[in-house]
Design a protein that fits this description.
By secondary structure, this protein is α/β, with parallel strands linked by helices. It has a single domain, classed as P-loop containing nucleotide triphosphate hydrolases (Rossmann fold). It is 44% helix and 19% strand. It has 8 helices and 9 strands. α1 crosses α7 and α5 packs antiparallel against α6. The longest helix is centred in the last third of the chain and has 16 residues. The protein is globular and about 70 Å long. The two termini are 23 Å apart. The structure holds guanosine-5'-monophosphate. Guanosine-5'-monophosphate (5GP) binds next to β5, β6 and α4.
Length: 212
């Protein structure tokens, strides 16, 4: 357990993977289990899928609004992924971090790179790999939210996406969602314990020394 007397710098926790490797499910499970971390909700120009809610899964915006957000400097990072644009609104992230919460980002390698350039010390990144390409295809088809040509394009893009694995701090091969969730929780727990993130340590230790 983290000692609540010690202040901590908020952590930007990035999960990336090719579509279908299980990242969205893992993100949801992590948010449900741990109330010290909140999800960053991205803006996107893609259409919503059945079951997705505006403002919860994404902020669905048109190209004009997206351009405006870029011009206003509202994004912490933004990138084109497949045929659409995606971006992380900065102000909710800043608010959560200053409230002492960690923030979870389900973003691609381009976004992960930009976050690291902006705030390397505050970013921990995890790349989720599928156990095999057959399994990835099976999961994409089972999802059945996208038309088949989109699934095929996503399969061909998966190899590109996976080529960025070495830019991440941690790699999890998602054989089973429960095991992967345990792994991700352990990574998060260890990252929170990093000396540099426990900003009130010096004062805490001085107090310990004066007590003795
Ligand atoms: P999907 O359309 O399947 O929800 O997401 C497609 C890809 O875009 C995923 O790899 C997802 O991680 C990525 N993505 C979602 N939001 C953002 C964002 O705000 N920034 C970046 N760079 N990538 C994002």
């Amino acid at each position: 357990m983290m000692n609540s007397a010690i202040q901590r710098r908020g952590l930007m926790f990035v999960l990336s993977s090719p579509s279908g490797a299980g990242k969205t499910t893992l993100s949801r499970m992590l948010i449900e289990r741990d109330n010290g971390i909140v999800m960053s909700v991205s803006a996107t120009t893609r259409q919503s899928r059945p079951g997705e809610t505006d403002g919860a899964d994404y902020f669905f915006v048109d190209d004009g609004r997206f351009d405006q957000m870029v011009t206003n400097g509202e994004f912490l990072e933004h990138a084109k992924v497949f045929d659409h644009r995606y971006g992380t609104p900065a102000s909710p992230v800043k608010a959560a971090l200053s409230d002492g919460l960690d923030v979870l980002f389900d973003i691609d390698w381009q976004g992960a790179q930009q976050l690291k350039e902006a705030a390397r010390e505050d970013v921990a990144s995890v790349f989720i790999l599928p156990p095999s390409m057959d399994e990835l295809e099976r999961r994409l088809l089972a999802r059945a939210q996208d038309p088949e040509d989109v699934v095929l394009r996503r399969m061909s893009k998966a190899a590109d996406e996976m080529s960025h694995w070495a830019e991440y701090d941690y790699i999890v091969v998602n054989e089973s969602i429960d095991t992967s969730l345990e792994a991700v929780c352990k990574i998060l727990a260890a990252e929170r314990m990093k000396r540099t993130r426990q900003s009130g340590l010096a004062e805490f230790v001085i107090n310990l020394q004066t007590e003795s």
